[in-house]
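Work package 3, deliverable 3.1, input record:
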Amino acid sequence: MNVNSNSYTYLFSVVMVVLVAVLLSVAALSLKPAQEANIQKEKKQEILQSLGMEISRDDADAAFDTYITEQLVLKGGKIQANPETPAFDIKMADALAKPTNEREVPLFIAERDGKIFYIIPVRGKGLWGPIWGYVSILSDGYTIAGATFGHKGETPGLGAEISTPVFTDQFPGKKLAVNGAYQSISVRKGDASGDHQVDGISGGTITSVGVESMLNDCLQPYMSYLLARNPALTIPVAANSDSLISVL
Amino acid sequence: MSQITKSEPKEALFSKKNVKILKDPLNESNPVTVQVLGICSSLAITVKLEPAIVMGFSVLVVMACANLITSLLRNLIPNRIRIIVQLVIVAALVILVDQVLKAYVYDVSKQLSVFVGLIITNCILMGRIEAFALANTPWKAFLDGIGNGVAYAAVLIIVAFVRELFGSGQLFGIQVIPDSWYLDNGGWYSNNGLMLLPPMALIVLAVLIWVQRAKFRQLIEN
């Protein structure tokens, strides 16, 4: 057999391409359920992580059912009774493509040790690709209880540091509102002792800026709803500054 | 295939020749420091030890399998399209590895993220397949793949060790340089931020090549 003849070369390439295509499609299809289950569990893990809970992937399903009491869908600051997609299945990338008022965004409500937490998914752009995360908020509606971030491919050692405790541990206690009005978190260079500031990543400026605009963009649609749920804030602040402090 | 078995009568699995195939890449014909292949990925993923090790291991697995498959097919591959065939073999293996990792060891696959795709573009793979696997029997090609994979991983680990230690003061993400040494805490030490950037990987690699050649003078070109 002459392996260098034209007809053999054609035959070889055709057989090779078909074989490889079949092999890869079979692999992709048969592995898909396992891959999707992993992605779902990871999402549950990340949601619970924003509450400061480290849960293994295998326990994520059970823990999610235990702690997450409600899954709501908000649109323009109001609860949607009949959302197009259930809260858990909403893809933030699709939701963010719409104008702020037309977005259907999920809100998860968790209960842990008798306390209520609101968990908000966020998503934005880093340097190399998407970044995302979950921010949990105390029942007062504006104090951050915890945050967790993920990224597709930020630079290891630089932008990728946003998903490490060095960065996320700065968030608990930061405030999202001043006197009942929304005030976003800014990611700064250097001193970040203020209530609305966190220290960015040195050498990861674009990722840090991405986190800042992600938080600003994604948290805002929830604030009117969350602040409205806090009865203390509906009282004029000047007259009742003591009661506001007691809420905190 | 029958001719080949005749021409090599019962060579032991780990004969001297085969051990040489396995060990040579570690020093005298190191794919990175001597043949200067696979430089791009050595620069890109050596900021931290952990991804460097996972990448080194993945390259090792893909290289051993690709060498083995190519060597098994070597008498059937038409010469004119051999490069394309090699590419298809490597790419299919990489995609397969990626899919399996995603399904069963999700955490590892997350760490590798974009690096898995980079395996396809690793010059060492194509270099070894073209130069060795196409002309040698499967077992030898397999050993060659393992040897070169280990050699590549070793270089990656050395460079990543230096960069992570001096760049972020950590090893495997754990702080090893005492916190009290740092300027912020009243000490005298500060991390070398340049270590985190790719140019420093090039310099670390160059120093490694220098050290190796100073020790093994037969590697110095005229």
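Chain A touches chain B through 27 residues (CB under 8 Å).
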